[in-house]
C-alpha cells in the first residue's frame, strides 16, 4: 500500500525538510526544467494557442455554470449506452460503492489506470481494508506503490526518484507484488521499462476488474476519455470484464467539438507532445468488445462547495496537465510531498484547501505556499488565475478563519492566530482612510528616521532577519511631489 498524506504538518515545516534534501532538489530541478523547455517548444508551434486557451476557459466556465444540466445529460447518455451510473457525495461513499461492486464480482484484485480522483479518495487503501488488492499499472504509479511512497507530481508521480533509486525499488519490492525483477537489473531506462512491462503483463492478462478515472466525459454521448502515454490504460480499459470509472463531476465537456480543444492543449501542456500516444474512448458497453459491465461513479467530494465560491471555482477548470508545477519556483524547491495532497504545486495550493476546507494546519497554510510570481497563470492552458485564487484564499484564512465542510454547507469558524496580521491590517485601513493622519505619521517617521531600528521586534524579527528594512526617506513622497511639481492634494485633485 502507498503511504498517505493524512496528518501532514503545515507547508513551511514539510517544505523545510525537502529544501534540505540535495538529491530531491537535484532530481526535481532536472525533471521540471526539461519538461518546461519541451512544453514551451510544443506550445510555440501552435499559431492559435491564445485562442485555444481562451476557448478552453470558456467551455469549462460554460459547463460549470450549467453543471446540473450536463450531469443529468451524462447520466442519461451513459445509461442509454448500457452503463450504470452511481453518485458519490464524498470519498467514503465513493470508496464504499467501488468496494461493493468489486465484491459482487468475487474478485480479490483489480488493475488500475492512473487516476487522480481515486488517489484523492484513497481508494487503494479503502480496497485493501476490504481485502482487495489494487495494482497500479502506470509506470510512475507502480514505482510509488512498490516503494510504499507518496506521489509528488500530477503527471510524473515518481519525479522525486532517480534511476538508481528506481532500480533498487524494483529489485527489492517487485517479488512481493508478483513477478520479481530480472537478475542483475541495471538502471538504464530500457531495462527498467522492460522489468515493469514483464511484471505488469501477468496482471493485465489475469485481471477481471479494471478501475479508472477519466480525463473528460462527453455529455452528448456519455463517452469517457482517457489519454495516456504507455498503453497500460488501454489494457485496463479493454481486457477486464468489469470496468469501474471514478470521475470528478467537473470533468464534463458538453460536445465532441469541445473535446477537440482539450485534445490539442492537454498533450502539449503536459508531456509536450502534439497528441497523446493513446487516446481511449468508450461509451457504455459494446457487444463482443471490451468490458461486459461498465459502472460510472460521479464524484463530488467538495466540488459543489468549490463551485459555490465565485473566485475559487475557476480551479475546477483544471485539466491536470501539471504545467503549473513545472514552472513553479516554490514547487521546484519544496517538492510535491510538502503540499500534503495528491494535488501538489500551484493547483494543489488552491484546490486542496477548497476541496477539503482549511481546518487542518496543512490546508490553512497552502494558500501561502507561493511567491505569487504568476508563472503558473501564464502557462495554464485554461487560464486559471492561480495567484488571484491564492490571495482570495489567504483573505479567507485571515478574515474568516478556517473554513470547514459541514455536509454540503460551508461554515465559517472564528479564526485562531493571525491576530497580529489582522491588527496590522486594521491599523493600515485606519491610516489610509485618514489622509491627514497619514501625512502627519509620514512626516513624523521622516524626522525620527535616525532612531528607527534596523530589525523588527517580536515575531516581526523572523521577517527582518533575512531582509533589510527599507529606509524611510528624509522627506515623504507627497511633500516632495508638492514641493517639486506643485502636485495633487490629499483628495487626488490637481491644484
Ligand atoms: S491549473 Fe492549469 S496549468 Fe495547472 S494543472 Fe491545472 S490546467 Fe494545468
How many strands, what sense, and barrel or not for the largest sheet?
Answer: 6 strands, parallel
- What is the 3D shape? globular
Our count of helices gives: 23
Parts with pLDDT < 50 across at least 5 consecutive residues: 404-415
Distance separating the two termini: 73 Å
Q: Work out the radius of gyration.
A: 26 Å
Class from helix and strand fractions: alpha/beta
Assembly classification: single chain
What does this structure look like?
The protein is α/β, with parallel strands linked by helices and 495 residues long. It contains 23 helices and twelve strands. The protein has helices at 11-20, 22-44, 49-65, 67-80, 91-105, 116-120, 123-129, 139-146, 163-177, 189-206, 232-238, 256-270, 303-307, 323-327, 329-334, 345-356, 361-365, 375-379, 386-400, 419-432, 435-447, 461-464, 477-485; strands at 84-88, 109-112, 133-136, 209-212, 216-218, 223-228, 242-248, 252-253, 278-283, 293-299, 403-406, 409-412. A six-stranded parallel sheet has the order 1-10-7-4-2-3, sandwiched between helices. Strands 8-5-6-9 form a four-stranded mixed sheet. Strands 11-12 form a two-stranded antiparallel ribbon. A hairpin with a 2-residue loop joins strand 11 (403-406) and strand 12. Helix 2 packs across helix 12 (256-270), helix 9 (163-177) runs parallel beside helix 10 and helix 16 runs parallel beside helix 19. It is globular and about 85 Å long. Residues 404-415 have low confidence and may be disordered. It binds iron/sulfur cluster.
